[in-house]
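Researcher: Go.
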Amino acid sequence: MSFKSTLLVSALTLMPGMALAQTVTESETIIVTARPNPEDPPVVAEARERLARTPGAVSVVSNESYEARSVTGLTDLLRDVPGVLVQRRYGEESRFSIRGSGIDQSYHQRGVLFAQDGVPFADADGFSDFQKLDPLTARYIEVYRGGNALRFGGAQLGGAVNLVTPTGRSAESPNLLRAELGSFGFERVAGQFAREWGQWDGFAALTAMQGDGFREHAAQEQLRGTLNLGYSFGPDREVRLITYGADIEQEVPGTLTLAQALATPDAGAPGAIATNWQRDQSVFRTSLQARWRLNASTVFEGGVYATATDLVHPISLLIEQQIQTQGVFGRFDWTGDLGGHRADLYYGVSYRQGHNDQELGPVFFPVDGDSHQEATGLDVFAEGRYFVSDRFALVAGGSYGRATRDYTDHLNAANNASETFDWFAPRVGLIWENEGGVQFYGNITRSVEPPHYGALVQAPYPGFVPVQPQEAWTGELGTRGRVGALVWDITAYRAEIENELLSFNPGVGIPAAFFNAGQTVHQGIEFALDWEIADGWLLRQSYTYSDFFFDGDPTYGDNQIPVAPEHQYRAMLRYTNPAGWFIAPSVEWRPGDTWVDYANTLEAPGYTIWSLNAGWDFGNGVSLFVDARNLTDEAYVPEFGAITDASTIGANTAVFYPGEGRSVYGGIAYRF
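Model: Structure:
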């Protein structure tokens, strides 16, 4: 093991406390239903019940659903959530899109409000980086798909994802030690500690990981730490300090052509290897939050936060960034009666500000840059439900948003620019629930996404590229519930978008990597079904249908927007034996090819990947697991960047990230 791993193991042996913990009860269901899964731990069941009030597509993913697998990022955490496209590029860098949000983003993420404990991971301009999270320290994950992120003030097309950190009271066990080994030199050790001391509670976690990666030049090494310290003043009254720090070193393997990716998937891009592409960063995040019941009908939640990131990122050019973001948020939740009818309402505000000092240096190209980027964001939001009857509620709400961008180029003042964006995003909906907890819902929501700095600042164009905010109206209808052995979640949606931010050439002399499309449409179906076939037998299925296309574009007509597969299917059949062991084969299937370019001339082939997960809980706090992936060692390409027209002579088609070959991971955990 590395020095970091050895240091962590030594630290874990000093953790105090030997309290006996119960054997963990499994609960894998991620579908939100009006009636919580009786196998859920109380904290997760409460989250499901709370999200089930939303007149739209929402999911909860509990820690219990993935703790017996090797998880190294969002690809593993959210793989079973329908409507979510999450595919690994390398390490923990992934494609992340919900309903086509930021679908052409070839690095990192935009279009989804990505947060932990309500605090955004994103920089102040809305741009997110996945590597700032520790997947082993989420008690559960809330997924608000599409226009259902209003509770956080979000108005993004894709919605919101919120990871909730364990507390000293909600953690799965007082103590946890975990160690993993696997293919391609993968090693990880982790420890967690949770305690209550009268009115105080605390949770602490350390995780160290290293690995060579499946591909050449894809090694990584990480050390992460989390602390969650709370003080209770009584029921529903507490103050909590949450801090997180990470040191991350990641090699970047680059992209390949389709032929290279299928013939030699473990190869790195020659240029990335020759000039030693890296993405190294140190991250610190802290927040001070409060939950305070004001009276029988009103609860306040709010806090202040700050994040800091130092990044060194040599690729085709050397990128160095010092990013700082601060924010404040507050929300009131009210429940009561209006005119003799039950009603509830939440309303609040979220404000963030930050800056990025960025320097660029030559690697492949003679580029120099020295700039200062400032951004702010303000969201004022509210949503209420009014129950016309005991089972039927009308829903209305909206958010006002304001974002500023202020750019200073220290090398050329002619490039200095600033811009302010304002918008209002209303929302109406309805929800009906029968006596058994089966729900039907619908909503119409407006979404707005102002451009981030990656879209506004595009050399050699001076100042800001004239891109406009992306706007959309999304309608959705759905149902969720549980009847006997079946649990389902089905949603159909259609989003009509103006000025979609895409990477394509507008043909007007502006060499833009990002530009606004005209009219586009994103529509689809999200389907999840759990079937308890018999005692101990569970069949889990999720299916996503995505139909994203231009609507009368002058260049691309009604072509399909590339990157998102039209059909994506996952299934797992799990048998759990009363003796404590389980076995779970699974399949990931893309039955058709996926467009790579806007001109619809090049496709990435579909694929079928078989995997197997097994484990044993010995009942004394010790559990083992094995996670075997891509059993047939199929060469496949799940992820790639968008190309304007692959048929153009000289077009760069080296945009593909090969999928991981056959691999086996194993782990042992001790809860006490």
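Model: The first strand starts at residue 58 and ends at 62.
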